[in-house]
């Protein structure tokens, strides 16, 4: 349970905090899925920038 808390639930808690711990801003499943996908993309981009830096990210995107 401790490992699960550290690995799987942390990103969702972070995204929930970013969203203001509220409901989704959109209605119906396709729009909510898009909103969640954008939140996940933002989370992943911020993680990559913290790990490899902006320069490393740009270099990887060019490759």
Helix and strand layout, with pairings?
Layout: H1 2-7, H2 9-18, H3 29-62
Major β-sheet profile: none
Tally of separate helices? 3
The radius of gyration computed from the alpha-carbon positions, rounded to a whole number of angstroms, is: 14 Å
Q: How many independent structural domains?
A: 1
Task: Count the beta strands.
Answer: 0
Q: How far is the N terminus from the C terminus?
A: 39 Å
**Content-based structural category:** mainly alpha
The string of secondary-structure elements, in order, is HHH
Strand percentage: under 5%
State the share of residues found in helices, binned by percent: over 70%
How would you name the oligomeric state of the polypeptide chains in this document?
Answer: single chain
What's the mean pLDDT score? 82
Residue windows where pLDDT falls under 50 for at least 5 positions? none
Estimate the global geometry from the Cα principal axes. extended
How would you describe this structure in keywords?
single chain, 63 residues, mainly alpha, 3 helices, Transposase IS4-like domain-containing protein
In words, what does this structure look like?
By secondary structure, the chain is an all-alpha fold. It has one domain (2-62). 79% of the residues lie in helices and 0% in strands. The chain contains 3 helices and no strands. The chain has helices spanning 2-7, 9-18, 29-62. The longest helix has 34 residues, at 29-62. The chain is extended. The relative contact order is 0.09. The mean pLDDT is 82.
């Amino acid at each position: 349970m401790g490992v699960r808390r550290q690995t799987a639930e942390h990103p969702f808690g972070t995204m929930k905090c970013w969203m203001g711990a509220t409901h989704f801003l959109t209605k119906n499943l396709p729009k909510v899925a898009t909103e969640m996908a954008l939140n996940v993309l933002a989370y992943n981009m911020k993680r990559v920038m913290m790990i490899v830096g902006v320069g490393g990210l740009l270099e990887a995107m060019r490759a």
